[in-house]
Design a protein that fits this description.
- The complex is a heterodimer of chains A (455) and B (952).
- Chain A is built from 18 helices and no strands.
- Chain A has 455 residues and is an all-alpha fold.
- With 952 residues, chain B is α/β, with parallel strands linked by helices.
- Chain B folds into four domains: 83-146 and 326-487, Rossmann fold (3-Layer(aba) Sandwich), CATH 3.40.50.740; 166-317, 3-Layer(aba) Sandwich (Dimethylsulfoxide Reductase, domain 2); 516-642, Barwin-like endoglucanases (Beta Barrel), CATH 2.40.40; 662-939, Alpha-Beta Plaits.
- In chain B, helix 7 links the parallel strand 10 (209-214) and strand 11.
- Chain B is globular, with a radius of gyration of 28 Å.
- The two termini of chain B are 54 Å apart.
- Classes of the chains: A mainly alpha (455), B alpha/beta (952).
- Chains A and B meet through helix 7 and helix 12 of A and strand 31, helix 24, helix 25 and strand 35 of B.
Chain lengths: 455, 952
């Protein structure tokens, strides 16, 4: 059953012999002008981030708009945002793999790469949001003779474990999948250096039955582990808020709501990137409209899930009779940051409804715009949770309005720059689509005639 | 590495100094209030000022300004050596040269010399000036920004003699203030705060009552149990109406009282108010105080009322031990300037006063001083008056020099130097002696010795002689130094009332819609070096909660009528002068009144204080030898400039949240739990902490708290709290570990005020402790919530999760910046770690003091008691609103207090189980029908609507 189902996703023009050439081609030719422009822009953005970080390290957290009562704002907003982006990769790789959703094949490599880069980007924020970044490593339970240990009751510590585990597993999972492809590239390499590098990366892959046997087992194992992580990472991230006592944070709905939101934003980011990548590297045969449409369906689904979560929060705030909780949610609607709430609600709940229409789901420009809007909405979701809850908490004397500084924007731009830079480097040197898996997914020669009759 | 030069190890340690152990020296504050202080020194440098517990005025307390004097000592902008102005440029000269040159000039100018000082009391300080004046046939003038001359004159008209009365607030059950602000800016405000506070603790179902008739929200007005708002000057009529009503009740004496009725309708008061207040006052006769504001009319009415109520000679002391705390007068200043302008004065010597700042430009101080051939400034800095001088011979801070004080007649203190002079300076009195000696004049010139010998000599012939029980002089002197004061005061007797003519008191000034100006003193900033004290400027105003500037207070209706909001800069013009200040909308102020405080807008005081705010003295006019500060027409012009007010409070209402429990005293008498909320039974998932030994707790009586900020000052000095500057304050990054939350309740136009000191609550279920990933904040086995600075990495999660938001984060390198200018770092308390950039800090319940107390108890081999130590805030609180101790000890004060029916926790339902308990705020006024804080509370907290606009 699986084989015919798969065929629908890949273009029929793909011939087995062309797969390797098509996918490896971008890594073999000199980069285009467009790539250079994109790369220089992205690394320029990184430059902005580096300058901000330098100023941050020398002058302290005070360069940001942070204060009492909002000890966090852009820093943790960005952290949660990027962690969320990372979710699609794991979901596509692991859960869809376990569910035998073969359509993942064309997109899983880039989605996983995106995950890795997003988690790397995200990691910058908790590290640098600390007041004394030079001792931030104290968050790790390193054995030492100073009798210092960590507080296992703190959700921030759980974050350290969740994020580092997630990063490690995602990296290994991704790398495992890359090994056969690196071997392919090694075999195809014409110059010495290429051969050596890809040779080293392919870990002596021979393509033997034994290799494939180990590979399949490892891949399945990682898929199983990652599946748990898809659910756990953002659940743990949500605990940063859910286990606190701040109205607007202290809520049990956060774990599923965060996971749904993460998948939502992650898929949106995958769409944003793939729309470009498939065009730029002529991979339309591999990453088809059908793939994009399926992702849009998931965006629609998860969008409705987060919308449901938003409404539930309001309902519970009203139903709980808790005056602090009620105030925070009224304040979301009518307070000084209500604009952020409305942006969030519009982008995350209203906009994806467009995907009920097939025409919209399959229109490249529409889905591109929507995927961008969804990510804007998801950034504001985190901003809302963090800033609009904190800025008016229990004692009204503490209330204050947050206003970001250029540095807040600076390192946010830097984070996008880093992510894009890494992704641009990835598309230049790594196979962006899984060569091995595509080859597996292609119709067997025996089926070709049958297929003809079906059509 | 050891320096190459020869150094000497600390083997022979100086006498009295033991490393790590503070020495306390009793002294008196050198300012006009003359409060007894203890100077805490460590390794030879003063690090903190506290009230002298034995001193009758300070009773161990000290107000914010008094405590921050310590920073004035270390002010980096003081003059560091003698200077002479040559061709408009300062040039350095030696003391010897200065003395010779000046002696010559003085000899030549004999009979044409004036000495201009601020209020000076103390036998030696007065005598040295008198001797100097005698020797050179010089004139002595006193002038302060706020002279209290009206009070002195009213006393003269009412009783004869010019003594300024002292008031016994501790004996007063009823206090009526007619535009007076005894708790904020009175001439003996600390004494009065402390006395007032004694009767604010409900004992035997009794508490005192404070009534204020005013046009602006002063510290006193904000603390009034009942407040009558009226146009500037109308409180004179209010007082007369009460006098009229008292007459009807059989008050002794027959007084002519101008008819003022129908006053109530005129002033918009509820019918029957006057009658009720009169009845209450009459019931409290002999146990009440009526205080008038800074006009002659107010003071005359206050004298009349005190006389009618029989307070004279009981709570008002005009002949036993009257006050010496204000001597200046504008009349004297005018006389000096006339003489200067007529060319009758050649040499002016100034110190301790700053008329070039504190008189309006129209008074012509600068021009008059220009007429003198030589002006000699003996103050500690080149301030506005100092810049008119040719010689700037730096005087000393009172912590560096000898001196004495006699704030009330018969109450003497010696001011002891507790540190070597920091700069090449010399006490002003020393200079006077030196000038006389070098000039070789008779009298003072023949005195052998310096200022120290002079003080001792004066005391030997003066105070020692009056003390009939004293033994030999040396032991008398030593005990005076040790105790910090000699109390030879005598009890007052009622004086004879002279029935001054009250027919010409000011008529109602109901000027319709015109704006009227009211200029009042600042409770913090004075016209001396205080204005360059960053800590003092950063301390938010008690009522406005705005720091780093003064402002024009406008009532909400006035502001909206004029289209102004907080932070709009306006040009205020009155009496031909214009200043620029920001607007602050002050609910509770009277409509069409613009109130501005003085002390700000300095041109030359130092790097910190120059050009901060506007100088409100400039707007006043001089009338009948007094500064006219109330009721002048004023015009306002928008500048179009807006800057966020450096306001430390985000929102001013509790929004119905269970934060401030408040009730009328009457209601409390029926139900001691009045004003509190129904509290749910709270359960915890965590196992309870077990406290086997001590468990620290605090109780704050909101009825006693008057919001004076003394606790904030004490905390800052004790705990090395940095200042952060106006920019950071605008961002909400103040570092105070204890702050005063000021809430309004009731109608926006007539709100009542509650002051709620807010500090780390040391919760048993501390939300900060569970979330810190690196265990930098932990619970001690004595219930303290501890912050380990070295361990903190600065995630700020603890602060986010703190429902009280009392944690403070070092957003930048604050401490180094604040204490870096030499010699400010000398003030740091070595017992408390300074905190670096990037870490969280907060109230420790003065952990270092707890330790000290525990060590004391351990040495004596007994459990710790309340007497062993006090936290800094508790120690200094003028009204004793803060109690601290061991709640595991059933005999401790806090254990007893926590059982009081008024005790409650702020936002208890969050279940943080704070160690800080608050007492319901009681107001001694009748229950109101519309009182939202009574009756309906059991249903839970009120509906909350998000409120826009109230936020800054």
């Amino acid at each position: 059953m699986s084989a015919p189902a798969t065929e629908q996703f890949l273009s029929r023009d793909i011939r087995l012999g062309h797969v390797t050439k098509d996918i490896v081609a971008p890594t073999e030719r000199m980069p285009s002008i467009a790539w250079w422009i994109a790369f220089l822009t992205a690394s320029g953005m990184v430059g902005i981030g580096v300058v901000v970080i330098y100023i941050l390290l020398t002058r302290g957290q005070g360069i940001f708009g942070l204060s009492h009562p909002y000890g966090w704002a852009f820093d943790i907003t960005n952290f949660v945002f990027w962690i969320g982006i990372g979710h699609a990769g794991t979901l596509i790789s692991a859960i869809l793999f376990l569910l035998r959703q073969k359509w993942r094949t064309a997109i899983n490599r880039s989605a996983e790469a995106m995950t890795i880069f997003a988690v790397m980007t995200a990691g910058i924020f908790p590290l640098l949001h600390t007041g004394r970044q030079w001792v931030a490593y104290w968050l790790v339970p390193l054995p030492n003779d100073r009798l210092l240990w960590v507080n296992f009751r703190s959700p921030l510590l759980w974050d350290v474990f969740a994020v580092s585990t997630y990063f490690t597993i995602s990296l290994l999972f991704w790398y495992t999948g890359l090994v056969p492809d690196f071997a392919t590239m090694r075999d195809k390499a014409k110059n010495f250096l290429r051969k050596k590098i890809y040779g080293a990366l392919s870990l002596g892959w021979t393509g033997s039955m034994r290799d494939w046997n180990h590979y399949e087992k490892a891949y399945l194992l990682f898929a199983g582990m990652s599946t748990a992580l898809v659910l756990s990472v953002h659940t743990v991230v949500s605990y940063d808020f859910a286990t606190s006592i701040i109205p607007g944070w202290h809520t049990t709905i956060f774990p599923p709501y965060f996971v749904a939101g993460a998948i939502f934003s992650g898929f949106a980011m995958v769409v944003t990137l793939l729309v470009f990548m498939r065009k730029a590297f002529s991979l339309e045969h591999y990453i088809t409209i059908r793939h994009l449409e399926l992702m849009n369906k998931i965006i629609l689904l998860t969008g409705m899930l987060v919308g449901y979560a938003y409404l539930t929060e309001f309902f519970i705030a009203w139903y709980s009779e808790n005056p602090f909780e009620r105030y925070v949610f009224m304040n979301r609607l009518t307070g000084p940051f209500s604009w952020a709430f409305y942006i969030m609600f519009f982008c995350n709940v209203a906009v994806p409804q467009v995907f009920w229409f097939k025409k919209m789901r399959t229109s490249i420009p529409i889905m591109f715009v929507i995927s961008i809007l969804v990510n804007i909405g998801m950034w504001f979701e985190r901003f809302n949770i963090i800033v609009s809850s904190l800025h008016r908490d229990f004692l009204p004397t503490n209330w204050d309005n947050f206003s970001p500084t250029i540095y807040d924007f600076g390192w946010t731009i830097g984070a996008f720059g880093l992510f894009l830079t890494l992704f641009l480097l990835f598309v230049r040197v790594f196979p962006t689509v899984s060569i091995a898996e595509i080859k597996h997914s292609l119709p067997k020669p025996a089926d070709t005639s049958k297929e003809g009759t079906h059509a | 590495m050891r320096p190459a030069q020869k150094i000497i190890p600390y083997i022979n340690q100086p006498e009295e100094i033991m490393l790590g152990v503070p020495n306390y020296y009793a002294s008196a504050a050198g300012g006009s209030q003359g409060n007894g202080v203890l100077i805490k020194t460590r390794e030879g440098r003063p690090i903190k000022l506290e009230g002298n517990p034995q001193h009758p005025l300070s009773k161990g307390k000290l107000d914010a300004r008094g405590q921050y004097e310590i920073f004035n000592l270390y002010d980096p902008d003081r003059l560091t050596g003698p200077l002479k102005m040559v061709g408009g440029q300062p040039s350095v000269l030696s003391w010897g040269t200065a003395d010779t040159e000046i002696a010559e000039k003085l000899k030549a100018a004999r009979g044409r010399i004036a000495v201009l000082t601020g209020t000076v009391h103390g036998p030696a300080r007065n005598k040295v000036i008198a001797d100097f004046c005698q020797s050179f046939e010089a004139f002595h003038y006193s002038y302060d920004g706020w002279t209290h001359h009206a009070a002195r004159k009213a006393q003269e008209m009412s009783y004869g003699g010019t003594s300024l009365p002292s008031y016994h607030f501790d004996k007063a059950e009823y206090i009526l203030c007619l535009e007076a602000d005894p708790l904020g800016t009175g001439y003996s405000s600390l004494e009065w705060m402390a006395g007032f506070g004694q009767n604010r603790h409900v004992k035997n179902n009794k508490m005192s009552k404070l009534v204020s008739a005013d046009c602006g929200t002063t510290v006193t007005a904000s603390n009034a149990d009942e407040r009558f708002r009226m146009k500037p000057g109308m409180s004179v009529q209010f007082g007369l109406a009460i006098a009229d009503a008292l007459q009807g009740r059989g008050a002794p004496g027959k007084h002519f009282i101008p008819r003022v009725s129908p006053f109530e309708s005129e002033a918009g008061l509820k019918p029957g108010s006057i009658d009720r207040i009169a009845t209450e006052l009459w019931a409290a006769r002999g146990k009440s105080i009526v205080m008038g504001g800074d006009t002659l009319d107010h003071q005359l009415v206050a004298c009349l009322l005190n006389e009618m109520l029989g307070n004279e000679g009981v709570t008002v002391d005009g002949n036993g031990a009257p006050s010496n705390q204000a001597y200046g007068s504008v009349v004297g200043m005018q006389d000096l300037m006339n003489r200067l302008n007529n060319g009758q004065i050649d040499v002016v010597i100034t110190f301790g006063t700053n008329p070039a700042y504190s008189l309006p430009e129209s008074a012509g101080v600068a021009a008059a001083f220009g007429k003198a051939s030589t002006v000699i400034h003996l103050g500690d800095r080149a301030d506005e008056t100092g810049r008119l001088a040719m010689y700037l011979l730096p005087g000393q801070h009172w912590l560096e020099s000898w001196g004495d004080a006699e704030p009330q007649v018969g109450l003497y203190s010696v001011i002891q130097p507790s540190v070597m002079p920091l700069w090449d300076s010399r006490a002003a009195e020393e200079s006077l002696i030196k000038f006389a000696q070098v000039a070789g004049v008779s009298g003072l010139g023949t005195f052998v010795g310096g200022w120290h010998e002079y003080v001792m000599e004066t005391w030997r012939t003066n105070v020692y002689k009056s003390d009939v029980f004293a033994a030999d002089f040396t032991s008398f002197w030593n005990s005076a130094l040790r105790d910090g004061f000699v109390d030879l005061r005598v009890a007052p007797t009622p004086r004879t009332y002279l029935s001054p003519d009250l027919a010409n008191l000011s008529t109602l000034r109901n000027s319709g819609g015109d704006l009227q100006l009211v200029v009042v003193p600042s409770p913090h900033v004075t016209e001396d070096g205080n204005a360059n004290n960053a800590w003092l400027l950063e301390l938010p105003h008690p009522v406005g909660r705005v720091s780093w500037t003064n402002y024009a207070n406008l009532a909400p209706k006035t502001a909206s009528k004029l289209g102004l909001r907080d932070g709009d800069y306006i040009k205020v013009t009155a009496n031909g002068a214009t200043i620029e200040v920001p607007v602050h909308v002050q609910p509770g102020d009277v409509e069409d009144v613009v109130t501005i405080e003085t002390g700000w807008g300095r041109k030359h005081v130092g790097r910190v204080g120059d050009n901060v705010g506007g100088n409100a003295f400039a707007l006043c006019a001089i009338e009948n030898g007094m500064l006219r500060t109330m009721g002048d027409p004023v015009s306002i012009e928008k500048t179009g400039r807006w800057e966020e007010l450096p306001d430390v409070q985000g929102h001013n209402y509790t929004e119905g949240r269970p934060i401030v429990a408040e009730a009328a005293f009457e209601e409390y008498l029926k139900n001691p739990e009045a004003g509190k909320w129904h509290e749910h039974e709270l359960v915890s998932l965590w196992p309870e902490h077990e406290y086997k030994g001590n468990k620290w707790g605090m109780v704050i009586d909101q009825t006693a708290c008057i919001g004076c900020n003394a606790c904030m000052a004490a905390c800052s000095v004790e705990n090395n709290i940095p200042v952060v500057g106006v920019g950071q304050i605008r961002l909400g990054r103040e570092m105070h570990w204890i702050r005063i939350d000021r809430y309004y309740s009731g109608d926006e136009h007539e709100p009542e005020f509650t002051y709620q000191p807010m500090l780390c609550q040391h919760c048993d279920n501390a939300p900060c402790e569970t979330v810190c990933p690196v265990v930098a904040t932990v619970h001690s086995e004595e219930g303290l919530n501890m912050q380990i600075y070295n361990r903190c990495v600065g995630t700020r999660y603890c602060s986010n999760n703190c429902p009280y938001k009392v944690r403070r984060f070092n957003w930048h390198e604050y401490t180094f910046a604040a204490y870096e200018p030499h010699p400010l770092q000398l003030v740091l308390n070595p017992e408390v770690t300074v905190r670096e950039k990037g870490i969280m800090e907060k109230c420790t319940f003065c952990q270092q003091r707890i330790r000290e107390g525990k060590e004391k108890a351990k040495e004596m081999n007994r459990p710790i008691t309340d007497a062993d130590f006090k936290t800094a805030c508790q120690q200094t609180c003028p009204t004793d609103a803060i109690s601290f101790g061991n709640t595991n000890n059933p005999d401790s004060q806090v254990s007893q207090m926590k059982k009081d029916p008024r005790a409650y926790n702020v936002i208890a339902e969050v279940n943080t189980r704070p160690a800080v308990t608050y007492f319901t705020k009681l107001r001694n006024r009748p229950t109101r029908d519309t009182d939202p804080y009574l009756g309906g509370h059991d249903a839970g907290v009120g509906e909350m609507q998000p409120k826009e606009g109230g936020h800054h």
